[in-house]
Write the structure tokens for this entry.
Amino acid sequence: MSGQQAGVATLARTELFKIASSRRQAVALLAVLVLHVPPMLWGGQDADASWNGLRSRSGLFVAYAVMALGILIVAQEYRYSTAALAFLAVPGRRPVTVAQSLVVAAVGLTISSVLFAAWLTVGVLRYGAAGMHLDRPGQVVAAWAVVVVTVCSAGVLGVGVGTILRGSTAALLALGCCGALEPLLDVTRFRGPVTAPLGVLAWPTSELEMPSLVSAVCWGALALLGALLGVGRDVPS
């Protein structure tokens, strides 16, 4: 393992510790899971509705939650001036940004996978394995993969935007404005950085909006690339 890889691994563990030791962040992530329990107990659905809504129920809320998490774990460093201390330990912000992206993506993958499994289990208990397409495992795996890829991309986008703008207020305002403007044009509706996850996860259907999925991944990658180019080796102000 190279020194840079070891550095990123150490920084990733540090970021995980920071999330676990932050009461607000830990409680918020737990709330994402807990808030799904009442809808799981709600009856009155059928097998098709349960299957078609699997992606939206397990991924939509999580995608925007981890997007906000990505912004917050970056912004809090600049707010409390711990970014300068991190620079002294690891010259250059790029390894830190990579570690934060990996951690936020891992958090999103874990939460969305747990919820996907939970919603799938509830559907199986109500409508049987065939009702939730367990007799067609490729479809189940594909649905799960779409959820986690979209959620992880949203989290990386949050890290990228937070790193570029260096503040939670500016980042949330910028994404909020994007989310308000994107639906106004056909070319950006469900293709922009904020609304792309909606095109993948929002609709209660088993059909996939592939352009929205590609857009979500590309926006996450572009935000991370912009953040890596922007931070360079500067000491954060």
Notes: Residues 94-131 form the longest helix (38 residues). The chain has eleven helices and no strands. Residues 193 and 219 are 6 Å apart (CA to CA).
